[in-house]
Amino acid sequence: MNVIDSFRDEFFFLSNCSDHPAVYDEVEYPSGEHAFAAAKTLDLAQRAAIRESATPRAAKAAGRAVPLRPGWDRRVRFEAMRDILASKFSVAAMADRLTATGDALLIEGNTWRDGTWGRWQRPGYLAATGGNELGWQLMRTRTRLRGLDPAVHWPRAALTGHREHLLDPGVHDWVRDELARVTRRLHTQHATTVGCSGMATGADTWWAEVVQQTGGMSLWAYVPFPGQSDRWTPAQQADHRRLLAAADRTLTIGATAHTRFLFARNEVMIGSLGKPPGMGCKRGPLCSSAIFTESIRSQQVSRLPSRRSHNLHRRVESAPRDVPRPDTRRR
């Protein structure tokens, strides 16, 4: 069980609409949806009315009708969800059901177009995309219930980075060696068992090869669109086909070659790690910057010529901010 992408049937207990009570501000509500809807307002009478809603769906509708408390959209709603989930899964039976999902990726796939708390498949897309905030919060709650530290327990790590023509050929072998070293460290020290790759040339491909060759790790391939490798060299295309064939999971994001699918791929891939998109890279396995920066700072870079080392470090630090060039299929 590597991915749970719908909170229905046997996994309906993960949904806020399941009939499992949750406490918020010292008041018990019939479901997490009731509690979350009530958290939108500071008016105690309105909270009481929401609490009496006959169903979670009715509570959700009632919550949409109240004036939002200050800071709700920016910060408070995420803190409220964290507290509600902590309460819901504080019951031993519920905690056991959540921890029984192991390190599975939890995704609230939905059809009601919620791209903040879950993921949905937009027109022109081949896969559901979105922030999956509920899934992330559930995974973080699960990690804590298992007695693990989310700051160091990283079941999945991802990389999408510089293309090989943007790195000095003289450092290619060094980067490959560093990727292998960091991958071993992720596996042994952070319990990482899945490596996610953006499947572009250069760093992505090198990382995918290392993951495939590391015992106890699986490769998840995140492809921005069909024909990603159409403009590559024959050798690069052959490597791409081989790695895709070896991947344990392949997710293609968009139906056609377009820049937006590159960004969507990164969002979905990063969102699969147990941290929400938009958080910094240096405290978790989020992107090429996290992995390469860790490599550079923990090893003796003096073995590289100083100018080359400086340029590699500068390029890697800026990688997440790079904007794709018009030739999007190069990725």
Proportion of residues in helical segments: 40-55%
Strand order, sheet with most strands: 5-6-7-8
Radius of gyration: 22 Å
- The total count of strands amounts to 8
The proportion of strand residues reads 5-15%
Mean pLDDT: 86
State the helix count.
12
Q: Structural class given helices, strands, pairing? A: alpha/beta
Shape category: elongated
Low-confidence stretches: 276-331
Distance between the termini: 30 Å
Instruction: Profile the largest sheet.
Output: 4 strands, parallel
Secondary-structure element series: EEEHHHHHEHEHEHEHEHHH
Question: Would you write up a description of this structure?
Answer:
- The chain has 331 residues and is α/β, with parallel strands linked by helices.
- 43% of the residues lie in helices and 8% in strands.
- The protein is built from twelve helices and eight strands.
- The strands form three sheets. It has a four-stranded parallel beta sheet, sandwiched between helices. Strands 1-4 form a two-stranded parallel ribbon.
- Strand 7, helix 9 and strand 8 form a beta-alpha-beta unit.
- Helix 1 runs parallel beside helix 3 and helix 7 crosses helix 8.
- It is elongated.
